[in-house]
Write a structure and sequence with these properties.
This protein has 337 residues and is of the alpha/beta class. It is built from ten helices and 17 strands.
Length: 337
Amino acid sequence: MSGYTARALWFVGPRQVEIRRERVPEPSEQEITVRARVSLVSAGTEMLIYRGEANPEAELGLPTARGSFGFPVKYAYQTVGEVIAAGGDSGYEVGEVVFCRHPHQDVFTIPSRGRLVARVPDDLAPERAVFLNLLEVALTSQLDVPTRLGDRVAVFGQGTVGSFCAQLARRTAGRLAVVDPLASRRQLALEWGADHAFHPSEAETGIQVMTEGMGVDIAIEATGSPSALQSAIRCTGQEGTVVVMSFFGTRVVPLILSPEFHFRRHRIVSSQASNVGSGLQPRWSHARRASVGFDILRQDWLKTTVTHRMPFERAAEAYHLLDMQSEEVQGVLLTYP
């Protein structure tokens, strides 16, 4: 064991978090020990766990997680920190800055191989690099269902993932609409270049007008709300595609499929970032996707919105803010001394 005692965040029950003390093991030959600088709270999967809506029987699916979704559980996956110890065959050196798929913890040891760790480019700030995982989620949606030049696209939800999906689609879309109940998020989307930003109550009528009654070519659902998925189906045109980004957990998703889904011959595609989509694996490794993600994060056109920065010891407050769906809350960062 090393001389480090870490502080780690655990979900211990619905809407209950604790910071617990843990010993940190010395790194093996293919491991590194990292001191966190900043971590990003996921408003999707982590909030599902926080609310007690994750399936308690489901596998964690993350080697660095501990416990179970039945509580207690240590689970998160986006931290940027500095290597403070490195095994001889780790491929890393002390002092390097890395992105890690590891739960919120101030010091931890992690395997350096595979997709758990990525070296952060020297010219990329940690507070920007920490968005890599959520950007990869959005990038995967483009790999699964590319936006063609001139496509009409609607993105439902303008949290971080939905915003990234829309900004990537904007590069080639002919017409782009976003849908979100929060006025601040709609305004931000218009500022970075969306053509239209609708409240959910206006979306179906507005998108009909935008597309001259034809519906969109691609609708991307990134809200976690079943009603948004229903609206996405209604807004999609003949033989168009609905991309489902949300992880609904144990929530029931009732849908009315007739007449739009059946008569318009829609495709509904699951886009999930743990794997690169079918047919792309020979060329698109996880390392390549991370490299492309870092390249995009270097570019000024991509907006990474951070509304709150909180010390790690105030993590419970961060989750409460996100849970309240407050108008002013978007990206929430935890910072470490």
